[in-house]
Structure formats: C-alpha cells, structure tokens
Amino acid sequence: MRQNTSNPESESSEILGREDKKADGAKASGSQTLQRGLDLLDQVIDGPVKLADLSERMGLTRSTTHRLANALVERGFLTFLPREGYQLGPKLLQLGFLAQSQADVVQIARPHLEQLAAASEDTVHLGRLDGDQALYLDKIPGRRRVDISSRIGDRHPLTSTGLGKALLLDDAESTWRRAFDTELEAGAHSADYDLWLERMRGYAAQGRAFDLEENEDQIRCVAAPVRDASGVIVAAISLSSAAQYMDDARMQTLSSEVRDAAHRISADLGWTPGVKPPRRPVRR
Description:
alpha+beta, Arc Repressor Mutant, subunit A, Beta-Lactamase, six-stranded antiparallel β-sheet, 9 helices
C-alpha cells in the first residue's frame, strides 16, 4: 500500500504563491491601464482628437484605444464629439473647481518661500491683488540684519513695489497708466512715467519685476508672479534685502531663482508652462 508523502503545508504554500502571483499580475495590469488612461487624457488637452489620431499618438491598437476612451467617457472624464473626436469631459471641470477651491495659496507656497529664504538669506514675501493695492499674505524673514518694515496684512502700492509690479505684468498698458497716476496723486511715489513704463515693459518680457528702492529707501527686491491652472496671475512672491546686498548683478542672478520658486508654486496650483492666460479685462 502506497504511503501518501505529500506535505499539506507545502501544497498550501504553493497555492498561496500562485494566488500571490495572480494578484501581482492583476495589480500590474490595473496599474498599466490606469497609466494608459492618464496618458490618453494628456493627449486631448489641446482639443478634440479623432480615434485614429489618438490611437497613433498612444501607440495602441484602435480597439484598445476605443475601449479606454469609452471607459473614460462613461465616467465623464472625456466627451465624444461626432466628426471631431474625444475631448476633456465635465468630470475634470468639477474636479478642477474642487481642487482650486481647496487650494490655500499661503499653505502651498510656504515651503517654497522657506526654501528661497534659506538659500538667499534674504526676506521673502507672498502677496496678492486686493483692490488697487498689494496685500501681503506671508513673510519669511531673512538671516541678514536687515529690517524690512512690511508685515503680514499690510497693503502696499502696486506701482512702486516689486511684488505689486509682478501682479500687474499681464495687464494692459492702459491699466498700468491708471494705476501709476492714481498712486502718484496719492503721493505713493514720484516716479517719471516714461522711465517706469520702459522698465515695466522689460519686466513683462522677463517675467519678473524689480523694486529699485522705490517703495523703501535702501531696500531692493526681485519679484515674480504666481499663476493658477488657467495661467492667470493669482499672487506674487518677492525677495527683498538692503541695497548693499542687492547690486544689479545679484538682482539679475536672483531673477532666475525667484522665477523658479514662483513656477514651482504655480505648478502646485495646477499651472503648466506654456499655458497662455486669458486676456485680463481692463480694470477701471
């Protein structure tokens, strides 16, 4: 009579091993499908794409692409337009609105501001447009013994502060002129408009702005705008220090660092480089 020499524990381990492999395979397949779905959404960012073109861009068969696209249509992530193709759907609008409403620019910007302040040893500000002034939302003091008089909650002129100018960079020149004249009448500055305008044009081209001791004697700063997912300027950051630490050469060097920090904050708010902001209405 043959004796059963099988080991129940060994058989159980083999079964569990096969089940684990199946589970791992299912996870890998699910992960690949998710990745493909996300890649497909990226392909239609710029507008409707027909199935044949979408299949070619994705490097997938038409049937696989059609199956992925239809699954996204069912969930509202895509819509299908006859004779035009697939485009982003209403679910993304809903998610985008919710994400934007939940975004706290101060909280999102804080680690980037701290990093910039630590690297430069200078004072860093975050602010946004508040009516016809710049409202300072956050401040990270620098390590240098430089007294920057600003405080969180302060409001400062737009046309004589680096942060304020950065908030204006997308505006029409008629808006610049109106803001300049309003603050000139209020005694906020005594600048020459032609020189100021020439500088602003240069700032807009460079995507950053300077304060050349215009708002506070012996204090200079470099500022750059922060944008949301639509490309609109929603805030600005500035790096300020005493003029002795901010000669022209260093301000040019800091321009890249300040712009990069502003871009990282913008990316965390959903902005993508190259997105053109809608034309701002002329503010009256």
